[in-house]
């Protein structure tokens, strides 16, 4: 199932038990549910920038999300509380100062970038792949500590902010 524009309704659970949605455009979750029979894989793979917004929906408990972008970024436009797993396989996931928590894991594979401002109120500590994963801080305020922990493979500060470490940094 692929969608670039428009509305997608998952419908009856038997029809979407184990599907993959290749999403090339923006994603807005307006409703969802707690049905554990629905387990869609949402693959954000658009060529340009994509926004991810939750306007009050509940993400299906068995759903997994994968960011796999050759260009552009997937940017959160609101808080996301995910009941399962988010994987950044390739490309940029920009949290943009929003809350991002997962019940299972937030994983960055080699070649992936997690972009943070630094003042996010809640963030699941990411599991970083071996090698070329990058965490980039872009905030313009003053921050105590680093939201993604103290151990990095590639760490970039690309903002006007100031960060005061609250523990030893391992890069």
Description:
- The protein is an all-beta fold and 171 residues long.
- It is built from no helices and 16 strands.
- Strands 1, 2, 3, 4, 5, 6, 8, 10, 11, 12, 13 and 15 form a 12-stranded parallel β-sheet that branches.
Short description:
This protein has strands spanning 2-3, 20-23, 27-29, 41-44, 50-54, 64-76, 80-82, 85-94, 100-102, 105-108, 112-116, 127-128, 134-137, 142-144, 154-157, 162-164. It is built from no helices and 16 strands.
Structural class: mainly beta
Number of distinct beta strands: 16
Q: What is the helix fraction of residues, given as a range? A: under 10%
Spatial extent as radius of gyration: 16 Å
Encode the helix/strand succession as letters: EEEEEEEEEEEEEEEE
**Biggest beta sheet attributes:** 12 strands, parallel
Mean pLDDT: 85
The parts where pLDDT drops under 50 for at least 5 residues are: none
Ends distance: 40 Å
Helical segment count:
0
> Which strand-content bin applies to the residues?
35-45%
- The backbone outline, from C-alpha atoms, is globular
